Amino acid sequence: MLLVTATTLGFVPGPVAQVRDYVATSLAMNVRAPSGGTPYQPAPVGDPPAVRIAAAGDVGTGDREERETAQAMASLAGVPYDALVLLGDNVYPSGDPSRLDATGFSPFDDLLDDGAALVPALGNHDVRDGNGPGQVEALSMPGRWYTWRSGPALIVVLDSTRADDPAQRAWLETTLATTDAVWKIVALHHPPYSAGWHGSSENVRRALEPLFNQYGVQLVLAGHDHDYQRSEPINGTTYVVSGAGARTRPTDRAPFTAVSWSTQHFVDLQIWPDRLELQAVAQDGLAYDSFELRP
Question: What is the rounded CA–CA span in Å between residue 165 and residue 150?
Fold first, then answer.
């Protein structure tokens, strides 16, 4: 995929060739919130997207900050969301399914009542104390890995807590090899590329990135680091970290980074057969990053 346009706020990325040399612990973690954004751009009048998706990670607090992110989603006028993608850590601290109403359902009632499908992934906090199966059941997930399809877009949800599982990898290869979707988008918790607090998840990269490359995955959405990051295209794939649905940590920039900010936000995806537009929208409704992909 080709990244054809982008709006960032003053950062010129380093060479992508150095991506595999990045180590999170060497960074000062000095990138915090941006000083200003741009107005959110709705779809052009008369050209609604075929699919519209909201995504956020690490929402599992049930507190005011999470609800303010959910309210920012609901406040954007225009075409209703087709799906709400949760990028893992749906319940802190240890994935208790009995808390999902407070963290995974109630804050997003406006979107879900308006018809958005709930498309969650599991995070490391969700599987603690053996709670993974309970979350799968409570969230009505088809399994720990599954797909959601609408029009030209296929969302492939993976369980990055089991990145090395051969069954998941075999399923992923079959899924990517046989789909006719224009857009192949992966949603998982641990980011293959991150300049944040936790850094890049090497085991996820080792186990899954070759399949992303082989079968033309255009976009990977992850959480885990409590910030917003977008990579330069890496072998045709753009990697986005959106793990600040409720809490933030300082972040940083690596040679593969196009933009990064430590700010509470969600990701807005508008998808047409001929283009995909992503905006990172903060709780004030302003977009702090936007970019477009073309097939």
Answer: 27
* 8 A C-beta contact, residue 275 and residue 293: yes
Please tell me the total count of domains within the chain.
1
Q: Does pTM top 0.70 for this prediction?
A: yes
Query: Residue 6 belongs to what domain range?
Result: 2-21+50-294
Question: How far is 198 from 171, CA to CA, in rounded Å?
Answer: 27
CATH number for 215: 3.60.21.10
How many whole angstroms separate alpha carbon 172 and alpha carbon 184? Answer: 12
Per the domain annotation, does 28 fall within a domain?
no
pLDDT for the residue numbered 77: 67
Contact between 154 and 179 under an 8 Å Cβ cutoff? The reply is yes
Where helices occur in the chain by DSSP H, the ranges are: 64-75, 100, 109-113, 132-138, 166-178, 202-214
What is residue 148's DSSP assignment? E
Is the residue at 271 inside a domain? yes
Residue 139 half-sphere exposure toward CB, CA atoms < 13 A: 34
CB count, 10 Å around CB of 117?
16
Partners of residue 120 on adjacent β-strands: 86
Place of tokens 């296929």: 154
Q: Do the beta carbons of residue 125 and residue 92 sit within 8 Å? A: yes
Q: Annotate 250-286 with DSSP letters as a single string.
A: -B---TTEEEEE---EEEEEEEETTEEEEEEEETTSE
pLDDT tens string 2-48: 333 343 333 233 333 233 333 444 445 677 767 778 999 999 989 99
Domain assignment present for residue 264? The answer is yes
* 3-state class (DSSP) for residue 198: coil
Q: Which residue has the tokens 């090497």?
A: 202
pLDDT of 252 strictly over 70: yes
Distance CA(239)–CA(152), nearest Å, equals 20
3-state secondary structure of 72: helix
Cis before residue 250, ω within 30 degrees of 0? Answer: no
